[in-house]
UniProtKB/TrEMBL annotation:
<dbReference type="Pfam" id="PF12836">
    <property type="entry name" value="HHH_3"/>
</dbReference>
<feature type="signal peptide">
    <location>
        <begin position="1"/>
        <end position="22"/>
    </location>
</feature>
<keyword id="KW-0732">Signal</keyword>
<feature type="region of interest" description="Disordered">
    <location>
        <begin position="87"/>
        <end position="113"/>
    </location>
</feature>
<dbReference type="GO" id="GO:0015627">
    <property type="term" value="C:type II protein secretion system complex"/>
</dbReference>
<dbReference type="InterPro" id="IPR051675">
    <property type="entry name" value="Endo/Exo/Phosphatase_dom_1"/>
</dbReference>
<dbReference type="InterPro" id="IPR010994">
    <property type="entry name" value="RuvA_2-like"/>
</dbReference>
<dbReference type="InterPro" id="IPR004509">
    <property type="entry name" value="Competence_ComEA_HhH"/>
</dbReference>
<feature type="compositionally biased region" description="Low complexity">
    <location>
        <begin position="93"/>
        <end position="113"/>
    </location>
</feature>
<dbReference type="GO" id="GO:0015628">
    <property type="term" value="P:protein secretion by the type II secretion system"/>
</dbReference>
<protein>
    <submittedName>
        <fullName>Helix-hairpin-helix domain-containing protein</fullName>
    </submittedName>
</protein>
């Protein structure tokens, strides 16, 4: 009787390698909440994830992954480590303070003849 160890080894190797071939989870840095950023991105813990969300709220949507370097504590090495996981899609623009009185008074309608 032949041993089936080579076959078992092959199957076991295929199972282990399957995880390596699976697509990495991606995250949109303009729409993800802090918990998702923390879970998906390597080297980003809860405090850096919160900093990303705060930066996004203050400055508006990120236009590229490289703009994450503007967030304190996030360097280019961390961005490179996560580049395949990061997507940049639409996001809310930054909150801009309205000029004093500009929003309170509507413009008058043009006069009709």
């Amino acid at each position: 009787m032949k041993k089936s160890i080579p076959l078992l080894s092959l199957l076991f190797s295929a199972l282990l390698a399957g995880g390596a071939f699976a697509a990495e989870e991606k995250v949109n840095i303009n729409t993800a909440d802090a918990a998702t950023l923390d879970r998906v991105l390597n080297g980003i813990g809860p405090s850096k994830a919160e900093a990303i969300v705060a930066h996004r709220k203050q400055h508006g949507a990120f236009r590229s992954a490289d703009e994450l370097s503007e967030v304190k504590g996030i360097g280019l090495a961390t961005i490179e480590q996560n580049r395949d996981r990061i997507t940049v899609g639409g996001g809310a623009p930054a909150a801009r303070p309205a000029a004093a009185g500009a929003a309170a008074k509507p413009k008058p309608a043009p006069a009709s003849n």
